[in-house]
Design goal:
Number of strands: 9
Distance between the termini: 121 Å
Number of domains: 2
CATH architecture of the largest domain: Sandwich
Strand order of the largest sheet: 1-9-8-3-4-5
Strand content: 25-35%
Number of helices: 1
CATH topology of the largest domain: Immunoglobulin-like
Oligomer: single chain
Radius of gyration: 34 Å
CATH class of the largest domain: Mainly Beta
Largest sheet: 6 strands, mixed
Amino acid sequence: RHQDQTWQNMQATLGADVTLQCQITTDERISVLKWSRPDLNTDGYVYFYRNKRSYENYQHPSFHGRVKLRDPEMKDGDVSVILKNVTFNDTGMYECHIAVRNPVRSKRAHTEISHFIELTVTGEFVMPTVEAQTILIVAAVAVVIAVVIAVAVGLLVLLLKRNKKHHILLRKNQPC
């Protein structure tokens, strides 16, 4: 039994799809592939594959419908997965654990490989498009115009009321 470990750091932008890369360089048959989050200490895998098929019922609910193999045939030992629409909750440690069997040796002889990825999800400000900027400017101008009209109408009503009172006072003071 032989075991290898490798480490990698990755960054992804909030909402993006990210490829968690993992590859073996042997021609041995993959008997088990487990993508997990060891830092979560919860039941369920990111992705689980055994006996030539994946098992979604072993998957943690937060990864349902969001994880797939980059190459479903795992050609050239590529066992990378694509994680769709990453969130801040996806930040953390991922382990790609592979158990392989050499078809030439006895069935008991196998190798285990673990590759660890520390994923950091960052939120970056996305500059609005020209169309969105234009809409914001038009909306701001419309609000300013509405406020100016409201103030003008308010002043006009106030002046008319004052003027009406003044006119009534003038009439009272005039001789008949």
